[in-house]
TrEMBL record:
Domain of life: Bacteria
Protein encoded by which gene: phnG
GO MF annotation list: lyase activity
Organism phylogeny: Bacteria, Pseudomonadati, Pseudomonadota, Alphaproteobacteria, Rhodobacterales
Organism from which the protein derives: Sulfitobacter faviae
UniProt keywords, alphabetically: Lyase
Name of this protein: Phosphonate C-P lyase system protein PhnG
Amino acid sequence: MTVETKEKTRDRQAWMGLLARAEARDLARLWEGFGPLPAHEVLRAPEIGGVMLRGRMGAVGDAFNMGEMSVTRCSVRLTDGPDGHAYVQGRSRDKALQAALTDALMQGDAADEVRAKLLDPLAEIEGQRRASRAAKAAATKVDFFTMVRGED
């Protein structure tokens, strides 16, 4: 695999991960500002299913089944060629379709516009949510200290 191919793969993983984690309402709001859906053919209509989540204690123990999560998948083909795929958290068929269309558009000439109007704002929203969560967690932080009682 060439360096260029690895970079393209890493970039695609990043935007697909961002789309999968995004809130459906945020993606829908941004799509409204982006314009009408591009001409496309649905290869796999949005389907709702489930996946088993696995975890490890302390990142070193044996893997165990933590629970299940709902996911929705979709595949599309734009009329000018690129295919787009999406697996998103939750049960939103619209979000899965919009994410698959975004994936397809990112592989074509519209990538810069899609990044500026959809992906960059989604990344900013995600960053704000993480900062808010971190601030809430920091507010509950407890510092423990030990006092030494005199020297003998």
